[in-house]
């Protein structure tokens, strides 16, 4: 493979060799890292004399930038949303050291190569959400405790992202370039539509809910299922078995709003919407006052804060179990 890398960097590789190199890079992260390391060494040494003092100075500058980057990352941890941009930061640091050599050697990666080299990753914290616009214009809402990974530039022929947790997508239509969402237990393919994906690790199944358009969902044993609007598919993480049910899809996207407002609504309706707002299961006895009417607004309050409030203003007790189930009983 070293010979093919050398040919590629010197612009002498054939199409077949480029394809083989690309496949090798995709196979393993260590292969990718080796290619990047080899490329950077080549850029720094090709037709340029580098002295030991130059290397020492570059290393000092590199360490200084890394320390600055680390300090920025540490400060961001205290914010509601944590953006994990290590991959992008690494590319920026490399470019800051080697910009001159890139220009001198006229080395520019193709779109597909850039996709492999540069990946963006955004992660949300326990009680935060985020909104992202992808390179193709697709809009994504990322729920709490979730992560999305996507390339700086989408590859030719398809748009692929990966998700852990929950995300809502408004996909920019492009019939020549299908949009794919990969998770650990299912893959979703669309052309242009609105849908919600939920595969939080704490759940026993992965779910996709379709608002409009059409999507194809593939489970972890290769079965492909087409969803229609207002349908939800639940796929077992254990054996890949699935079920499709009719739902009100708008319930599953309540969480993307800035606030949830109740104006003289019955407790039963409030609990129903809170279930989707917080992504939890709510279990209650029939003897609680479900017809009791309340007015309140939820913005960034945690579920613990809101259920504590309900205990103060209604005759109910709320117990949160395993962080994703709430049991409600009458006082």
From TrEMBL:
Domain (FecR protein) ranges: 121-216
Keywords (A to Z) from UniProt: Membrane, Transmembrane, Transmembrane helix
Transmembrane parts of this sequence: 85-103
Domain Protein FecR C-terminal: 259-327
InterPro entries, alphabetized: FecR (IPR006860), FecR_C (IPR032508), Ferrdict_sens_TM (IPR012373)
GO MF, one example: sigma factor antagonist activity
Pfam families in UniProt: FecR (PF04773), FecR_C (PF16344)
PANTHER family listed in its UniProt record: PERIPLASMIC SIGNAL SENSOR AND SIGMA FACTOR ACTIVATOR FECR-RELATED, PROTEIN FECR
Official protein name in the record: Ferric-dicitrate binding protein FerR (Iron transport regulator)
């Amino acid at each position: 493979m070293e010979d093919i890398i050398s040919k590629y960097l010197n612009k002498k590789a054939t199409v077949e060799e480029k394809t083989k190199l690309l496949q090798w890079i995709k196979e393993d992260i260590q292969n990718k890292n080796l290619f990047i390391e080899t490329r950077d060494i080549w850029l720094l040494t090709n037709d340029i004399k580098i002295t030991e003092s130059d290397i020492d100075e570059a290393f000092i500058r590199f360490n200084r930038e890394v320390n600055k980057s680390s300090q920025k990352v540490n400060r961001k941890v205290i914010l509601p949303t944590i953006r994990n941009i290590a991959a992008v930061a690494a590319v920026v640091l490399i470019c800051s050291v080697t910009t001159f050599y890139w220009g001198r050697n006229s080395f520019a990666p193709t779109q597909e190569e850039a996709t492999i080299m540069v990946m963006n990753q955004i992660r949300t914290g326990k009680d935060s959400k985020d909104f992202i616009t992808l390179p193709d214009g697709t809009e994504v809402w990322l729920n709490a405790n979730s992560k999305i990974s996507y390339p700086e530039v989408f590859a030719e022929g398809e748009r692929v992202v990966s998700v852990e947790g929950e995300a809502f997508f408004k996909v920019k239509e492009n019939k020549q370039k299908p949009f794919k969402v990969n998770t650990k237990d299912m893959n979703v393919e669309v052309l242009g539509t609105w849908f919600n994906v939920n595969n939080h690790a704490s759940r026993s199944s992965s779910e996709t809910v379709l608002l409009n358009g059409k999507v194809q969902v593939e489970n972890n044993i290769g079965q492909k299922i087409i969803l229609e609007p207002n349908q939800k598919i639940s796929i077992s993480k254990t054996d890949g078995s699935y079920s499709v049910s009719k739902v009100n899809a708008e319930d599953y996207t309540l969480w993307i709003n800035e606030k949830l407002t109740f104006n003289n609504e019955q407790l039963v309706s409030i609990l129903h919407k809170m279930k989707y707002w917080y992504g939890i299961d709510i279990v209650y006895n029939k003897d609680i006052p479900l017809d009791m009417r309340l007015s309140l607004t939820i913005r960034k309050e945690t579920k613990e804060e809101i259920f504590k409030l309900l205990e103060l203003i209604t005759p109910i007790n709320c117990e949160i179990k395993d962080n994703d189930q709430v049991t409600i009983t009458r006082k």
